[in-house]
Amino acid sequence: MTLFNGRYRWDGTKKDNLDPIAWFPGSYDVKILDCSKETGKVRLLKPYLCLYARTGEGQSISAQPEKFALRICRDFSLEIGRVLWVEDLLTEKDRYEVVSFIRMGKVGNNPLYRSTKRMATASEVEYIKKALKTLELVR
């Protein structure tokens, strides 16, 4: 099931006491899918897939995607640890990069995360392609 499929934008300003994703405007093409429905009785550890790609418009969040992920989670009521975060590098080879977030602590009520990146495994690439195929069938 598709939760979001479109261009996700931010304007680089602080609103509602929340820091912006980046201090400059930007946008990414984002697809958020709930893949739990397709697995039947198997319960996925990460039932959501968030696939995001640069648009070339504005500030890139690729180097530090933590605020982006936290804002996506807030806007779509997701838990950061239950989402498979994937950056689509839009290349022919090694196209998908999996991003993991490790909670490092808290400042007040705000959790702090560190991100690590790695290339997607063959099984993850297959999972991503299957999810995207489902998205295309819905259109």
Could you give a quick summary of the protein structure above?
This protein is an alpha+beta fold. The protein has one domain. Helix content is about 20%, strand content about 40%.
List its salient traits.
139 residues; alpha+beta; six-stranded mixed β-sheet; 2 helices
What is the strand arrangement across the widest sheet? Answer: 1-2-3-4-5-6
Major sheet description: 6 strands, mixed
Instruction: Give the H and E element order.
Output: EEEHEEEH
The secondary structure category is alpha+beta
Distance between the termini: 12 Å
DSSP, total strands = 6
**Helical percentage:** 10-25%
Question: What percentage of amino acids are in beta strands?
Answer: 35-45%
Q: What is the total number of structural domains?
A: 1
| Regions with little confidence, pLDDT below 50 for 5+ residues | none
Write up this protein.
This protein has a 6-stranded mixed β-sheet with strand order 1-2-3-4-5-6, with helices on both faces. It is of the alpha+beta class and 139 residues long. It is 20% helix and 41% strand. It has one domain (2-138). The N and C termini lie close together (12 Å).
